[in-house]
C-alpha cells in the first residue's frame, strides 16, 4: 500500500507539472447578418473574431483553443465591403487561429460573398499563415477575388524627336476566388461552387509624341501587357489542403487582361521636308489563370470527392498597333510608321486542378474521386495592326494557344491519382489570329491562329507521376448540349493523356482516346492497362463496355463496367497493386481477380427497377444574372451583370427532369388546427391569426407591463421565407452531367428581379421519382 501511495503521488507530481491542454469551446452563430455591431447577436464574422483571439466578442462567447463555430441552416451573406485587409473587419473572412466551422449540410448552409459591392468584390475565406481551419457540412459560394486594376494610358510629349512611350502593365488578378489558404485547411462534406479568381487588368494604352513643328521624327508607342489572370477559381492553396467527401464545381480562374493599344505619334513637317511617323506596337495579352477548381502551390490531398465543371482562365487578347503617317513637306514626306498588333496570350492550365509552375515542391494526391466536365483556358485573340497611311507596313497579332490539362495539370514530383474517374474534360481552343490592314503601298502580314493544347484528362510536366487503377474515358467533349468555344483555325488538341516533360507511369487503368509525348519524355506501362483506342496509350486493346457517369453508390459518381467488359478479372489479387476497394468503397475482387479501372463489377441484383433516380450536384453559374432576350446565356466581357445563366446537375440514370423556378418571399409561421406549423403568406388575415396564436401562447404574459415588447419579439421570431413557383421547364436528360441554358425566361415570361431557387426532380422510365434538389440564384436588373 505504501508503494502504491508513493506511485500515485509521483504521477500526481508529474501531471501537475505539465501544462493542461486547451479546452475547445462551441461558439453559436445567432444571425445570418454580417455585422460587427455592439448588440446581443453573434454573427459569423464576430464568431471568427472570438475564435481567433480566444476572447468574447459582442454576442459571441469566448473562444478557447481549437473552437467550433456552429451555423444553423441559412444563407450567410457577406456584406462588409472592402478588400486587401487581413484583420477580418471587412471583405473576406480572415481566419488566423485554430477553428472548425460546422454547418447544417451543404444544401442547407451557405457562406456567400456575392453581397459585396461589385467594385469591392472579394473571396469568401482566407486562411492566414499558421492558422488551422476545418470546414464541415456547408457551401462556399459567390466569391470573386479582386480584379487587377487597368493600367493608366500614357501620352508622349512632342519634340525633336517625339517622345517614345511604353505602356504600363495591368495589375494581376488576385488568387483564390472562393478561398485562399496559406495555413492548414480541411474540407469535409463541403461544396465550393460558383467562385471566380480575379481577372487581370488591361495594359495601358500608349501614344507616341509627335514630331512637333519641325521636320522631326515622331515617337513610337508600345502598349502595356495585360495583367495575369488570378489562379484558383475555387481554392488557391499555398499551404496544406485536404478535400474529403466534398464537391468543387462551377468555379473559374481569372481571365488575362487585354494588352494596351498603341498609336504612334505623327511625323512633323517644316517647309520642304517631313519627319518619320511613329510605330505602334500593341501590348501582349495577359496569361489566363491556372486551376479552375484548385490551384496548388503547396500540398493537396483529395479523397472521395468530385471536381466538376471548373475552368481555367482564358488568355487576354492582344492590343492593337497603329502606325502614324509621316510628315508631309512641300517636296518630300517622312516614312510612315508600322502598325504591329500584338498576340493574345495562352489560356490557363489545369481546369480541375493545377500544380503551380513556380512552387519548388507542389504535391498532389488524389484518390477515389471523379473529375468531369472541367476545361483548361482558351487562347486570347490577336489584335489588328494598321500601318501609317499610305505606305506603312502592318502586322496582325497571332492568337494565343489553349492551355494544357483539361482535368489535371501535374508539376509536382511524385503526384499520384488512384481509383479515380476522368470523363468529359476538355482543353481550350487556340485564339484567332488578326488581320493586318492593307495600306496603299505597304505590306500587310496577317497573324496566325493559336493552337489547342493536349491532355484532355491530364497533362504532366514532372517526374515520378503515377496513375493507378483509374478510368479515363469520354474526354475531349463537354457533357450536355454543344458548347460553342470561340477560337481560331489552328491545330486542335487530340490527346487524352499528355506528357510534356519528365516521366509518367500508368498501371491497372483504362485509358480511352490518344496519348501523346513531347520529345525526351517517358510514358511507362506499369502493367494491366486497357487501351481501347490503341492510339499511343499503354495497354492491351479491348472494349471496356463502360456505362455513362452516374450514381452507382459511394460518395462520387462512377462509370460502371457492364457484362462482357474486357476490363473484368484482369489484375491478380496479389503482387499487381490491386487495392482493397474500388472508387465507391466496394471490396475487390468480386470474382476471381480484380477489374481494371476505378470500378469493380458486382453481381447483378435480382428483380426489376424499383430504384428512384438521383438528382445531385445542382449549381447555377453565374448565380447573379439579368434576364436575357435569347435562350442561350450570353456574358459580355468586363460586364458586372451577366445575361442569363447555366444550370448544371447530375443524374444517376436517364430521366424526365422538372425544373421549378421558385421565388423567395417573406412569410409568417402559422399553425393549423392540427398544430402543424407552416410558412404562410403575410396577408392581413394571416397576420391577425398569428397575433391571436402569439397571445394565446404567451397567456398571462400577453397583458400588463412589458407585454407589447414580448408580443413584438414573438412576432419577429415568427418571420420565415417561403417559395412560390413562377414557372417550370421539363427536360429529357441522359445519365451523367447535364447543363441547361436558362435565359431568365420561362417560355416568353421573364422572371422579375429577386431571390429565387431552382428545384429539380427526376422521374425515370419506370415511374420512380427522385428526391428534390435545389440551388439558389438571384435575378437583377440588366
Explain what this protein looks like in three dimensions:
- The model is unreliable at 1-23 and 631-640 (pLDDT under 50).
- The termini are far apart.
- The protein contains four helices and 56 strands.
- The protein has 782 residues and is mostly beta strands.
- α3 (684-698) crosses α4.
- The strands form eight sheets. The protein has a 28-stranded parallel beta sheet that branches.
- It is globular and about 105 Å long.
Number of strands: 56
Return Rg in Å: 30 Å
Secondary-structure-derived class: mainly beta
Tell me roughly what share of residues is in helical segments. Answer: under 10%
Average pLDDT over all residues: 89
How would you characterize the largest beta sheet?
Answer: 28 strands, parallel
The span between the termini is: 85 Å
- The tally of helices reads 4
- Tell the overall outline: globular
Percent strand: 25-35%
Which residues sit in consecutive blocks of at least 5 with pLDDT less than 50? 1-23, 631-640
Amino acid at each position: 500500500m505504501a508503494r502504491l501511495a508513493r506511485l500515485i503521488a509521483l504521477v500526481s507530481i508529474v501531471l501537475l507539472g505539465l501544462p493542461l491542454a486547451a479546452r475547445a469551446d462551441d461558439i453559436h452563430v445567432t444571425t445570418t447578418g454580417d455585422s460587427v455591431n455592439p448588440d446581443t447577436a453573434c454573427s459569423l464574422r464576430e464568431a471568427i473574431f472570438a475564435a481567433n483571439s480566444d476572447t468574447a466578442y459582442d454576442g459571441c462567447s469566448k473562444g478557447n483553443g481549437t473552437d467550433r463555430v456552429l451555423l444553423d441552416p441559412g444563407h450567410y451573406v457577406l456584406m462588409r465591403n472592402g478588400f486587401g485587409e487581413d484583420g477580418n473587419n471587412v471583405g473576406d473572412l480572415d481566419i488566423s487561429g485554430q477553428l472548425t466551422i460546422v454547418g447544417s449540410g451543404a444544401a442547407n448552409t451557405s457562406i456567400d460573398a456575392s453581397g459585396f459591392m461589385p467594385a469591392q468584390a472579394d473571396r469568401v475565406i482566407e486562411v492566414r499563415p499558421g492558422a488551422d481551419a476545418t470546414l464541415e457540412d456547408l457551401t462556399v459560394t459567390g466569391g470573386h477575388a479582386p480584379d487587377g486594376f487597368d493600367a493608366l494610358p500614357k501620352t508622349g510629349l512632342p519634340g525633336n524627336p517625339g517622345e517614345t512611350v511604353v505602356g504600363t502593365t495591368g495589375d494581376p488578378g488576385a488568387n483564390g476566388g472562393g478561398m485562399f489558404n496559406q495555413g492548414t485547411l480541411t474540407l469535409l462534406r463541403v461544396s465550393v461552387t460558383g467562385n471566380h479568381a480575379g481577372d487581370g487588368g488591361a495594359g495601358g494604352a500608349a501614344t507616341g509624341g509627335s514630331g512637333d513643328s519641325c521636320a522631326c521624327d515622331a515617337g513610337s508607342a508600345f502598349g502595356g501587357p495585360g495583367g495575369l489572370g488570378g489562379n484558383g477559381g475555387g481554392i488557391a492553396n499555398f499551404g496544406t489542403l485536404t478535400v474529403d467527401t466534398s464537391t468543387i464545381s462551377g468555379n473559374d480562374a481569372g481571365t488575362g487582361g487585354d494588352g494596351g493599344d498603341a498609336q504612334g505619334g505623327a511625323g512633323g513637317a517644316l517647309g520642304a521636308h517631313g519627319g518619320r511617323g511613329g510605330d505602334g506596337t500593341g501590348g501582349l495579352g495577359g496569361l489566363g489563370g491556372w486551376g479552375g477548381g484548385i490551384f496548388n502551390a503547396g500540398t493537396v490531398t483529395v479523397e472521395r470527392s468530385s471536381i466538376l465543371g471548373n475552368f481555367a482562365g482564358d488568355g487576354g487578347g492582344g492590343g492593337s498597333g497603329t502606325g502614324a503617317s509621316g510628315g508631309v513637306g512641300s517636296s518630300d514626306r517622312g516614312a510612315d510608321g508600322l502598325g504591329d498588333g500584338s498576340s493574345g496570350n495562352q489560356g490557363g492550365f489545369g481546369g480541375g486542378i493545377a500544380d503551380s509552375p513556380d512552387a519548388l515542391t507542389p504535391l498532389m494526391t488524389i484518390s477515389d474521386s471523379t473529375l468531369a466536365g472541367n476545361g483548361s483556358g482558351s487562347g486570347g485573340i490577336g489584335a489588328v495592326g494598321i500601318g501609317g497611311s499610305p505606305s506603312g507596313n502592318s502586322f496582325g497579332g497571332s492568337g494565343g494557344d489553349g492551355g494544357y490539362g483539361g482535368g489535371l495539370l501535374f508539376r509536382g514530383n511524385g503526384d499520384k491519382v488512384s481509383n479515380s474517374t476522368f470523363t468529359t474534360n476538355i482543353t481550350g481552343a487556340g485564339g484567332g489570329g488578326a488581320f493586318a490592314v492593307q495600306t496603299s503601298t505597304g505590306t500587310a502580314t496577317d497573324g496566325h491562329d493559336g493552337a489547342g493544347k493536349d491532355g484532355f484528362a491530364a497533362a504532366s510536366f514532372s517526374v515520378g507521376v503515377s496513375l493507378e487503377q483509374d478510368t479515363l474515358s469520354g474526354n475531349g467533349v463537354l457533357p450536355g448540349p454543344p458548347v460553342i468555344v470561340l477560337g481560331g483555325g489552328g491545330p486542335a488538341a487530340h490527346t487524352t493523356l499528355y506528357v510534356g516533360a519528365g516521366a509518367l507511369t500508368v498501371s491497372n487503368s483504362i485509358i480511352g482516346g490518344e496519348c501523346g509525348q513531347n520529345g525526351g519524355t517517358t510514358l511507362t506501362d506499369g502493367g494491366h492497362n486497357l487501351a481501347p483506342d490503341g492510339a499511343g496509350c499503354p495497354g492491351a486493346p479491348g472494349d471496356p463496355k463502360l456505362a455513362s457517369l452516374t450514381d452507382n453508390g459511394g460518395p462520387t459518381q462512377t462509370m460502371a463496367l457492364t457484362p462482357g467488359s474486357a476490363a473484368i478479372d484482369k489484375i491478380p489479387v496479389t503482387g499487381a497493386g490491386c487495392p482493397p476497394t474500388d472508387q465507391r468503397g466496394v471490396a475487390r475482387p468480386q470474382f476471381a481477380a480484380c477489374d481494371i479501372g476505378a470500378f469493380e463489377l458486382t453481381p447483378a441484383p435480382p428483380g426489376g427497377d424499383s430504384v428512384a433516380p438521383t438528382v445531385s450536384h445542382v449549381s447555377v453559374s453565374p448565380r447573379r444574372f439579368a434576364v436575357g432576350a435569347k435562350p442561350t446565356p450570353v456574358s459580355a466581357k468586363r460586364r458586372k451583370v451577366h445575361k442569363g445563366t447555366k444550370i448544371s446537375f447530375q443524374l444517376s440514370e436517364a430521366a424526365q427532369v422538372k425544373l421549378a423556378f421558385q421565388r423567395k418571399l417573406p412569410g409568417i409561421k402559422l399553425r393549423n388546427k392540427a398544430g402543424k406549423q407552416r410558412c404562410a403568406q403575410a396577408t392581413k388575415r394571416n397576420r391577425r391569426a398569428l397575433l391571436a396564436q402569439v397571445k394565446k401562447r404567451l397567456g398571462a404574459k400577453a397583458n400588463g407591463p412589458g407585454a407589447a415588447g414580448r408580443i413584438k419579439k414573438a412576432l419577429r421570431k415568427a418571420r420565415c421565407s417561403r417559395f412560390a413557383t413562377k414557372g417550370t421547364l421539363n427536360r429529357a436528360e441522359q445519365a451523367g452531367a447535364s447543363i441547361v441554358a436558362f435565359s431568365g425566361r420561362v417560355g416568353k415570361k421573364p422572371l422579375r428581379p429577386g431571390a429565387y431557387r431552382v428545384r429539380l426532380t427526376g422521374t425515370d422510365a419506370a415511374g420512380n421519382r427522385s428526391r428534390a434538389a435545389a440551388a439558389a440564384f438571384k435575378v437583377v436588373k440588366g
